[in-house]
Amino acid sequence: MSESPDQQPVAALIILAAGAGTRMKSRKSKVLHEVAGRSMLGWAVHAANGVHPQRLSVVVGHLAEQVSEYLHEFAPEATTALQAEQHGTGHAVKCGLDPMGEFSGEVVVTYGDVPLLSAETLQALVSEHRTAANAVTVLTARVPDPTGYGRIVRDASGRIVEIVEDRDADESQKQIDEINSGIYVFDAELLRAGLAQLGSSNAQGEQYLTDVLGYAVSRDLPVGGYVTEDPWETEGVNDRQQLARLDREANRRQLVRWMKAGVTIVDPLSTRITADVGLGIDVTLQPGTILSGATTVGDGAEIGPDTRLHDTEVGAEASVIRTEANLAVIGERAVVGPFTYLRPGAELGAGAKAGAFVEVKASTIGEGAKVPHLSYIGDTTIGERANVGAGTIVANYDGVAKHRTLIGKASFIGCGTTLIAPVEVAAGTYIAAGSTITEAVPAGDLGVARGRQRNVEGWVAKRRAGTRTAAAAEEAASGSSPVGE
Ligand code: UD1
Ligand code: CA
User: Fold this and answer.
1) Which residues of the sequence carry a binding annotation for UDP-N-acetyl-alpha-D-glucosamine (predicted)?
2) Whether the predicted pLDDT of 2 surpasses 50
3) Ligand 1 pocket member 59 (CB < 6 A)
């Protein structure tokens, strides 16, 4: 996201996030619900940082402890102010402003539940406030259905004179389609004076922040609006349907951003990319791809179809098909899938392969090494160019503790081998198919650990007489080919 580097910081920014969010019907604070993989409050802090506030305060109330804890970890630069009882947006801003003490300059107010507000739009709002030398500048939008929002009332010359809440509006005011986003820049001094004057004689019995704007008008101070062309940026979330709607739009914006940056997205409707993902150029995302967390994908890699990667690093030109991966590293040109499960600590070197129905956990598969089919590899280090045959299982857990296994470079593990950890198979060894390996195999040796085969002559005729198998045996004995043709 581009930020104009020359923009002067604002003195303070207050994010309102004390509301109850009752319609979410959630034990989690509304502002901690996610849009495009980032909490709504996280988006609000992100946008706030675009105007470089010298003081950043989040007003918390409902589930205050939960929200404070989140902020402590994800936005330590923010302080929290408690609004124990919610007496309206004006009262909330007071709660945020009072602990900041005396200062002058600009105070920006935003909401914790308006996730699509961008840093660019906040910057434009602040620029407009400065250019017009306003005492208050409000972010507004024209919307097809303004129901529920405060309406921007302008006089005949187009000057804003007041904001009327939906519930306080008369019939003609209800027709106004320009709405109050609830996002403003105030002159600090005007804001303090206006808040001190607030009453609560309105339909909701609350202290309305919007009345500060009326107060500025009554004192003949310059009040302005900045109309955004993008009403999505002003939309708030009150319930889970709105959450889904804004999440979809936020995702669409991520996809557009990456397509513009050189990523092919075969089916945007089935693709999800959350906010902190990083992609190279000429990456191709096949349908059903979900990339989240701190996932990064190198140039020219192909992901999907039907793949979910979380906190996973994928190297250039790798191919990852029908895979679930979490906290894994996939080297350049590596080939993964289909139906592969890479768990935390799975690391594939350059050109390595983890093939169909392979699960890997806390293990390194060296450069060019291959685990092509039906295997479980846990707590194991596999050297470069080793080949691990179909159905190989590492028994890494003895029921109490996990143990490590080592497979040396260029070794060849036969199909159906079980490696009982802890065990070491040196570089340059062979393991016979079907072995159960419990002891170290030195370099250059063949490890064989399985029962010798014996055939019991005539057993079928004796013990399974009258079956179709016995009939086939008789037929085979009488001279047709051993497979019975
Ligand atoms: C508010 C505006 C309205 C605007 C709308 C935009 C007022 C009086 N009205 O109305 O003009 O169109 O936002 O969405 O300001 N909050 C607190 N403490 C409180 C009350 C609210 O922190 O005591 C927070 C809420 O968590 C929320 C935000 O402020 O994030 C807005 O509150 P909400 O009750 O949704 O305001 P609206 O009635 O929608
Ligand atoms: Ca609201």
Assistant:
1) 16-19, 30, 83, 88-89, 111-113, 150, 165, 180, 238, 343, 361, 376, 387
2) no
3) yes
